[in-house]
Design a protein that fits this description.
Layout lengths: L3 H5 L19 H22 L6 H9 L5 H4 L4 H4 L3 H21 L2 H11 L6 H24 L6 H13 L3 H9 L8 H5 L5
Helix pairs in contact: 2-3, 2-8, 2-10, 3-8, 6-7, 8-9
């Protein structure tokens, strides 16, 4: 018997942004799906427009599982996780141990396949970079949604994430920011209106 998927089903119970006042709470399962959507899109954009050779479907699966270890560690708020370099290094070790613990829950005959998506060491630098870009973009989108709804609690987080996005800058991210991000500050009525050229 394997408890792997029973553990993953509990990702929906882990609330993100635990130190922030949220108008709409977000859990790790929801976040992971959105990161998978965005990582897939970034990969497709990179391949179609900027000469990339990524497997977009693999990147989407990597993104789906990128926070799976949080079912064992919980969601550590970013200001705490990166409070100083020592905490960041130690937390990374905890994440890697949690990934290995999850992997050990999988039947032995399937472990090699799941290791390719659960173990960060099995990802290329390019795949990791795309997932990190998507992760930061999704956090940024959450800030935009909260601010658009009048929740100023997310202003400093948005400012911090803008700096993070600048550091993770890429042509595919610029494209995504230009084409898709502006809609996130609009109302349902505004995004439902058909655009006519």
């Amino acid at each position: 018997m394997s408890h792997f998927f029973a553990h993953l089903s509990r990702l929906k119970l882990i609330t993100r942004w635990p130190l922030m006042r949220n108008l709409l709470t977000e859990n790790v399962a929801e976040h992971s799906l959105q990161v998978a959507f965005v990582a897939h899109a970034l990969s497709v954009i990179k391949n179609r427009k900027f000469g990339g050779q990524l497997n977009a479907e693999r990147v989407a699966v990597l993104a789906m599982y990128h926070d799976a270890s949080e079912v064992l560690t919980g969601d550590m708020p970013t200001p705490i996780k990166y409070y100083n370099p020592q905490i960041a290094v130690e937390y990374k070790k905890i994440e890697q141990l949690a990934q290995q613990t999850l992997l050990q829950m999988i039947p032995e005959e399937l472990q090699a396949d799941f290791q390719l998506i659960l173990d960060e060491q099995c990802c290329s630098e390019e795949e990791r970079a795309i997932v990190k870009q998507a992760d930061a973009l999704c956090a940024y989108l959450k800030c935009i949604e909260e601010l658009s709804a009048g929740n100023n609690e997310f202003q400093l987080a948005k400012n911090r994430l803008e700096k993070t996005l600048e550091q993770r800058h890429s042509p595919e991210m610029d494209y995504f920011m230009t084409v898709f991000v502006p809609s996130f500050s609009l109302s349902l009525d505004e995004i439902s209106v058909e655009t006519k050229d």
